[in-house]
Amino acid sequence: MSTAKPSTVPSDNGTPAKAAAAAVIRRVGGAEESAAERLVTRHLPAWVVSGLVHLGIIALAWLVFGFAPAPVKTQEKILDATVEKEAEEPVKDLTNEDPGFDSTIESALPDIERLAEKTADAIVSEDPVGVPDAKTSDNLASQISGLSVDAAPGLTGELGNTMSGDKGGSTSAGAMNTAFLGRSGGTKSRMLKEGGGNEASELAVARALAWLARQQKPNGSWVFDGGSKDETVAATGMALLPFLAAGQTQRTGKYAANVGRGLAFLGKSLTNGGKFNNGGMYAHGIAATALCEAYGMTKDPSLKPSAQAAINYIVTGQAEDGSWGYTAPAAGDTSIVGWQVQALKAAKLSKDIVVPDKTIKRAISFLDKVSVGSRKSAYGYAAPAGGPGTSLTAVGLLCRYYISEWGPNNAGMAEGVDGLMKAGPKKKGLDMYYYYYATQVVHFFGDDQWKEWNEGPRDKEGKRAGGMRDWLIDLQKKDATPFAGSWEPDVSHIGTSCGRLGTTCLALLTLEVYYRHLPLYKRDTGGAAALEMVK
């Protein structure tokens, strides 16, 4: 744009005298002006003024807002960069950290698996979760007085140290025991990735928890859909365990309402004598495990009396030979012992629920009684008649891990795991009772045996396939039906007695093995040496 001469540009204080005089002369002689003269003398000054005013406005806006039209070349570069970025193929990360409760995972679930207000927004009972008046029985007071409990979830010395976790798993109360840190936060993400879990396994967990939450009854209980429909305490305890394993408690998590109502049901089912009013010792051990894990994860003071009372009943209900039977204090078998040992260990991991040392020693005596071989690596029902790779052997080995200090460097554990590996997953028929125990044992043993069990053996190209993880994921119901997220009842007594609910609970716990419990013992080269000794 051309600029006007100073003599024709109005100043801020008015028109210059020379320009004004010319204008007056032109007005007087206006009839003699030509069209060109009128254009120059009358219209052009107005255009110039208007142009200068607009130019000033633009300049002022630039000074105030600091913007200016971007150069054309810069715009082209930005456009090219955008097109190239959109054309890139996204890389899918199958080790996505903590994907089980991520919003992207929930959005991937079919509508039938979403709970909306039915679960997460359910009304939580205002009744205390525990039983405040459940006290230690008099005949047990002398046994537990002054007895020590585990000071830490692991052991030191030649058995190694416990795996250390970060603070990522703490609850809103900040009191989660270090033994349960693997269930949430950064420790869970690390253990999931390092242990062989992936996005697919956590999606299967998310589906199953959604289905499981929908099965909860209005009173907070769960009910088996097999032959044991009356065993509501056992069903409720078994259903709570997968939620707790996933880091869901009555205080935190999307299923806090479900967990809270379930724990409240167990609390109300517990008598002042410490016995649940429904079911025998099977049910008692399962429910006591849930109470102790919930207390250990949250340190909820209302839970401690109930948890301690339930443990006290296990202690007083132990038979003379160290076992537990269907009713206390009758003698029993390895299968029932397995659930009581899990409850006792959960209690000890909580740090301040008391478990008498005498109870543990007597349970170890029973395991010695029913074990087979010089290294006690196989287990029978109530007598030494078992063999390698059986369900009872898996139960016995897990008990050894928890109460006999059998880490991966123990020769008996190495021999027992070798038997489980030779038997392998029984893929001709789903037996979740066996898989639940055997998967834990092999996981705690670790090394190549665990990789093969979890992901499958290597093929000629070195890739693994056909392991427990992917097999369970494939068997899960995924179609848009009321059964989506569950597993069909298995062929064992779990499917017969506990139905779809029990089978799904054990399948869930098997897929949560990566982070449910921190390893108690540290592996070293002694584990491989021990295994070579027994081959």
What does this structure look like?
The N terminus is likely disordered. The radius of gyration is 37 Å and the shape is globular. It has two domains: 88 residues, no CATH class; 436 residues, Alpha/alpha barrel (Glycosyltransferase), CATH 1.50.10. It has 535 residues and is mostly helical. Helix 8 packs parallel to helix 10.
In a few lines, what is going on in this structure?
By secondary structure, this protein is an all-alpha fold.
Based on the model shown, name its key terms.
single chain; about 525 residues; mainly alpha; Glycosyltransferase; 2 domains; two-stranded antiparallel ribbon; about 0% strand; disordered N terminus
Average of the residue pLDDT scores: 76
Indicate the CATH architecture of the largest domain. Alpha/alpha barrel
Which residue ranges are poorly predicted, with pLDDT under 50 across at least 5 consecutive positions?
1-32, 67-175, 525-531
Through-space gap between termini: 95 Å
Query: Which structural class do the helices and strands define?
Result: mainly alpha
The biggest beta sheet reads:
2 strands, antiparallel
Percent in strands: under 5%
CATH class of the largest domain: Mainly Alpha
Record field, number of beta strands: 2
Tally of DSSP helical segments = 21
Structural shape: globular
Overall radius of gyration: 37 Å
Q: State the helical fraction.
A: 40-55%
Strand order of the largest sheet: 1-2
Can you tell me the number of structural domains? 2
